[in-house]
Design goal:
The protein has eleven helices and 21 strands. It is of the alpha+beta class. Strand 2 and strand 3 form a beta hairpin. The longest helix has 24 residues.
Length: about 450
């Protein structure tokens, strides 16, 4: 980026005297834009709707890239230097809490903590579910600065919390790299008409990175308990499940579908037409299909699908792409009832591309993140923004622990299972801020855009 800026300045000062500086800039841009065009034509999901052959390859890469994406594509983006983004994608440090933001009238904004990861820096700092924070690093949140302030939570930061007993308490929250066990809580409730298994599952993570499948195996143990308890209703809480891998979602789904469907298609990968055809011609028709399984390593999966009447899935706007793939993959086979709020709607996946040749990086430091793939279910459906069948909004000041039967969203689902009317709670009078997850203030990008919204 610096080299291009220097060249551009030289061009502005000397172009009236010498044309060779213009040639140098255009030559660099032509190399970069040709690289962009080649990758977009190969990988871009909607490559059949763009034609870069006649475009001016001497213009700035950002302008050139803008012409290489279709109108309405809010997923694909470009940055001038791949190194900060590469570093961010590789940085797994986090504070360990989830939250949402809301307005309180005028310019003021507050945040409510909804979920604390066990043994995380946030947990050790003393943060609790239901806490309301008003400041980050001593600066009050407002509609004008909340996104910039939230960006600072990717590093060690201070949260100012207000409550009825203490007007302001400051919590210093470090960040750290740690493994989160996704099985947060599991239990069985005895209700009228049978037993209901409840599982809070907060990320589709197989293990701590050691390839042991430890967390998937623990998930199988939970379903062994459900099977022994002979549950006939399942409550799966994905409200705070934002990330993970599709293979762990397939393992979970394989224990929920009726046993006769194990071995059937769970999901299908969809690329652009030319790339799809190339992949299938090389690897065969089944290569882009993901199938339900009946085994995990050398263990039989504990399938309970034949005994289930319904699967209730608790959702929120933070229920991310992999959770939506699970819902979508189950729908052709299972009676799915969604309780809570509309899911995030992440149905497009991106690819991070940069020039890997060190010599070519002397000219091209740019990175592109184009939309490249969708994932459908067996029937081909790729619509991921799931509306709830029973709309329940968690009250702003609800601090009841997760798993407590009086907790608002869980209580509503249990009422339906018990044959009682569910209380329908709409949003409170405070307007929800359309929150953006922690962004890097340097280049305004985040790993949360892969998969993107």
């Amino acid at each position: 980026m610096k080299r291009l800026i220097i060249l551009a300045c030289l061009f502005l000062m000397l172009s009236c005297c010498e044309n060779k500086h213009e040639t140098v800039v255009l030559s660099d841009y032509e190399v970069i834009n040709s690289w962009i065009a080649d990758n977009m034509e190969q990988y871009y999901l909607w490559n059949d709707q763009i034609d870069m052959q006649g475009e001016n390859r001497g213009e700035s890469p950002s302008h050139f890239f803008a012409k290489a994406i279709i109108p309405g594509d809010k997923c694909s983006y470009i940055v001038s230097n791949f190194k900060p983004l590469l570093s961010e994608l590789s940085d797994n440090r986090k504070p360990g809490y989830s939250y949402f933001l809301y307005s309180t009238g005028g310019d003021a904004v507050k945040g409510k903590i909804t979920y604390i990861i066990k043994n995380s820096p946030a947990d050790e700092a003393g943060l609790k579910r239901g806490m309301i924070f008003t400041k980050i690093n001593g600066t009050s949140l407002s509609v004008h600065n909340y996104n910039d302030l939230i960006a600072r939570t990717v590093c060690e930061h201070a949260l100012t919390v207000q409550d009825s007993d203490n007007p302001e308490t400051v919590y210093n929250v470090p960040v750290a790299e740690f493994a989160e066990n996704p099985v947060f809580l599991d239990t069985v409730y005895s209700l009228a008409g049978g037993k209901t298994g409840y599982l809070i599952y907060n990320s589709f993570t197989s293990d701590n990175g050691d390839l042991s499948k430890e967390y998937d195996m623990q998930l199988n143990d939970v379903f062994e308990k459900f099977k022994k308890e002979n549950i006939n209703e399942l409550l799966l809480d994905l409200r705070y499940n934002q990330k993970g891998n599709i293979f762990s979602s397939m393992i979970l789904a394989s224990m929920i579908v009726p046993a006769q469907n194990t071995g059937g298609i769970y999901a299908k990968y969809q690329y652009n037409k030319s790339l799809q055809a190339n992949i299938l011609s090389r690897f065969g028709d089944d290569y882009l299909n993901l199938y339900f399984a009946d085994m995990l390593k050398d263990k039989t999966l504990n399938n309970i699908g034949d005994n289930l009447n319904r699967v209730f899935i608790l959702t929120s706007p933070k229920t991310g792409a992999i959770g939506e793939i699970l819902i979508n993959g189950l729908k052709p086979f299972v009676n799915v009832v969604i309780v809570g709020n509309k899911t995030a709607g992440n149905n497009i996946f991106s690819l991070f591309l940069y020039e890997e040749d060190p010599e070519k990086q002397r000219i091209n430091t740019w990175a592109i993140v184009p939309a490249v793939m969708r994932i459908s279910n067996r029937t081909g459906n790729t619509d991921y923004a799931f509306e709830p069948d029973i709309k329940i909004t968690e009250p702003l000041y609800d601090s009841i622990p997760l798993g407590n039967t009086n907790e608002t969203v869980l209580s509503a689902a249990l009422n339906v299972i018990s044959g009682k009317p569910a209380r329908t709670l709409n949003s409170t009078s405070s307007d929800m801020i359309p929150q953006k997850l922690p962004l890097n203030s340097l280049h305004n990008l985040s790993t949360n855009r892969i998969p993107c919204k």
